[in-house]
Amino acid sequence: MGSYRIGNVLSIVGPGGVGGVLAAVAQRAGEDVVVVATPQSARVLNERGLHLKSRQFGEFHTDIVARTEPSANSLVIVAVKSYSIPDIADAIRDSKPKEVLALCNGLAHAEAIHALGAPRTTSGSIRIVSERVEPGRFHHHSKFTIIGMEEVARDWEISAILNRIGINTNIGGTERQVLWNKLRFLAPMALLTASKATTLGSARQGSEELLAEIAAIATAEGMETTANDIADNLARIDGDSDSSLGRDVTAGNRTELDALGTDLIRIARTHGIATPALEDAVAAIERRLRS
Known about the structure:
This protein is of the alpha/beta class. Helices cover 45% and strands 18% of the residues.
């Protein structure tokens, strides 16, 4: 596993589409970065480094240090799917991090992040269109990378690093507001593309009922939203775009359907909101997964 480095190290857990981009950009900017990965992935990353092709940051290659656990007393960014948090929680907790920022989709993971016991923990959001092409190689398709964090994180060391490396940060509100600000727009795109097995341009046709239901849930949760707000956001996204949920369903991988669909149905029921379109979309995705 190697020895720990002590100091202001940035440990990025998960070398996927999000973690890979952040690690490459931070390493090139001169930050002290460790990528936390499985033993096999860590070996590959230590041998190959990271190669990023980005519409925002250009194309470049950088060497990286990859390990199977975070550095001790480091600043930790969790960039894995929310269902993977139980697998990495002990390693993060044992490293005694100073700060933890989770960039996972959905809402339910926030409790598990706070249970890690770091002095400073929060679940934020990231807006980015990126993918891991193969271990160590990443394509960043969007011209933006925007991270949202709650107000209490304004003076955190992680916030300072993100600003230094050129990542746009929106800081304000509560943790729940930050998570809902993304979920209300991400969930419709993910559910539509995954349930209809097509790209967004085709999937958003006839989506009015689903958008209205998600807007109603977000509003009941304190994030005032209309169906038109969501439709306008979807209209600004390239019609050829897919979603990670859609890609995972097509590939037969484990998915974030619970975080992006099932959990919304549960929350809607606590507010007495009917969700026939949302339930139909989740059921269609479940049928695809079984086929």
